[in-house]
Every structure is written in structure tokens, then in C-alpha cells.
Amino acid sequence: MIYLDNAATTPLDESVLKAMLPYLKGVFGNPQSQHFAGREAAGAVLSARDKTADIMGCAPDEVYFTSGGTEAGNTALKGVCAAAGKGKIVLSAIEHPALLDSAEDMKKFGFIVELVKPGINGIVNPDDVARAVTDETVFCAVMHANNETGVIQPVEDIGKICSERKVFYYCDCVQSAGVLPLNAGICDAMGVSAHKFYGPKGAGALYIRRGANIARLMSGGRQERGFRGGTHNVAGIVGLAAALENAVNNAQANNKKIASLRDGFVERALFEIAGTHLNGDALNRVPSNANISFDGCDGANLLFLLDLAGVAVSTGSACSAGATTPSHVLTAMGLGETRAKSALRFTFGKYNTAREVDEVVLALKTAVGKIRK
């Protein structure tokens, strides 16, 4: 199998597995327990919190461990709404479903929701965000890098707008963590998910600025300083911190290799296959992502043929897999339904090779040719 769906999930790094193993069996205590077994587990959580906070650029007591990016986004948006009671929510129209669906939920409680569309290049204009933010706005979210196109957003400028207007700003960093520098100072909350940077599934982290007006969603225990009840996933938390540290330390080398593979693939695909279009800004994107539309093809059919050829790709967000409607990201960018439905997302990782690029281009040419006939 040639795996080019690293935006959906990444394989667990061997060094991360090694760091986790002691907490999957030998060190099994509950971190809340007061005896030696609990203290040993609590020490591991404490160390992981320190590492994660250092990389995020915040204090350890501003880091909350979650099950992943979906929980982080839900907690931020719904927690702020619960604390505010009423108001307006502003989101980019290309946010992850975790934010879009959460905002939809809040409409039932009287909240107003406005979506800000990006340009044809997939970039959200800060001026459009500024126009959408009013005195009634209590929450704003524009992600760091989009999960379907990989396009990087001007989050510093958007964060400044929200800060000046005293609006809670959440920055979804699920696709950028371990790839781009994280800076908690630009936002009020930030979410990451371990399995996107070669860590375990089911482990995530949420930064929340100290003093922010936000209510807890998960009751039932004093874990996470009373904000999120539930026994800690110690092995997952240790794995998250180890994976994030490893990804950041090796980001320069990994990004260079991955970008080279991705760029070579895009150049060949666009040159050797007629009627192909790269979606989103060609330069301002994370190094792994290539979102390409193929004239005369249905993306789902193309994915099926590539799967039969042993190549794993996707038609968009893994959380929207199976959807019959075209990508909300591509349509928000102004692309027509036909082009949106003909798109595939190819996302490269550190374990991919140049030989795999050659094999994928060949498989892709065969599949496109078969569909077009």
C-alpha cells in the first residue's frame, strides 16, 4: 500500500510507541490516586503537560488534555457560548465540521452564526472577518491550516482583530501542529490532535488562555483542574507530548523532504494528465497537501480505482467521508460543484518515497484514463 492520506491520520512513530509502552502495562496507576502507583502516572502527565505547554508557547496550567481536535473545538465554542449565554458566532466557511456543526447546535439556543467565505485561493481575508465581528460577537474561529486544501490562513492578523474587539478567538491547529510554529499568544484557545503528527489516536490538547470566560462541558471529576472530568489517558498523553516534541525537533528536515515529494507529484500530475487543477493557493500551504481536481472524473470513483491499485488518498476531510455533497471547503472558495466533486486530496508524510510518487502518478494516469473513457 502507498499511503497518501496523512492529513486523515499518520502512522504511530516507533519512538512514540516506545515512550508509551510503560504506561500501557507496567505504570498503570490512576493519576488521581494518592499512592505511589498514582503518583508515578501523575508525574508522567505533569511532564507531558510541561512539554506541550512549552511547544504551544503557554503556561502548563493553560493546557488541557482532550481526546483530540473535535473535542477541543467543541469545548472551545460551546464552552464560550455557555458562559456568554447569548451572542454571535463568527467562523470561516472552511472550518472543520467540529466547529461548523457545533455552531449549528448553538443556533438552537438563540446564537447567531455568520460564516466568512475565503477567496478563490482558499485564504480568508482578515478584513472580511473584521466586518463580520460586531459588538454582539462572543466567539470567532479561523483555522491555522485547512484540512482539505492545506492552505495557511492569516491567523496572526485575525487574532489581533479579535483581541482588539475582546472576542474569544479559537485557532484550530490540528493540521499545522508539528509542521508550523505554534504561538498561543495570537489566540484565546488552540487545539491539536496527536494522530496528525505520528502520535496516538484519541489524544489531544487544548490551550485556553488563563482568565478566559469559558464554561466546562465535561463534569464528574476534578481532573484537568476541574475543567474536564474523566480519568486521564496517560499513555495517550505521554504519546502526544513525545510525538509533538519529535515533530517540532525534526520539522525542518521533514518539511523539506515532504515538500519535495509533494511538489514533484503536483508538477507531474498537472503536466502529464490533461484537465487537472490544483485547488487553493499554490505556495501558501503546508508542505504535505495537494488538492487536485480532474476534469471528467468523479472523485469517489477515482478514489475507488486508486484504492484497487493500492494507493490510499481521500476526497476531503476524513470526518466527512461518505458524504454525497461536494466539499464545503471547495464550494466556499467559489469552485463549481463539478470541479469540487472531481477533487482528490493527496497528503504526503515523512515515510513516503520518490519511488512511490512514480507509482502513484502511473496509477493516477491509468485511473483517470479509464474513467474518462
Write up this protein:
With 373 residues, this protein is α/β, with parallel strands linked by helices. The protein is built from twelve helices and twelve strands. It has helices at 14-24, 36-56, 69-84, 97-107, 126-132, 155-164, 234-249, 251-272, 299-308, 328-332, 337-341, 354-372; strands at 2-3, 63-66, 88-92, 112-116, 137-141, 168-172, 189-193, 204-208, 276-278, 289-294, 311-312, 343-347. It has a seven-stranded mixed sheet, with helices on both faces. It is globular. The two termini are 26 Å apart.
Note the beta-strand portion.
Answer: 5-15%
Structural class: alpha/beta
| Helix percent band | 40-55%
- Order the strands across the largest sheet as they lie in space: 2-8-7-6-5-3-4
Write down the secondary-structure element order. EHHEHEHEHEHEEEHHEEHEHHEH
The number of helical elements comes to: 12
What is the CA-atom radius of gyration, in angstroms?
21 Å
Low-pLDDT stretches: none
Average pLDDT, rounded to a whole number, is 96
Largest sheet, if any?
Answer: 7 strands, mixed
Number of strands: 12
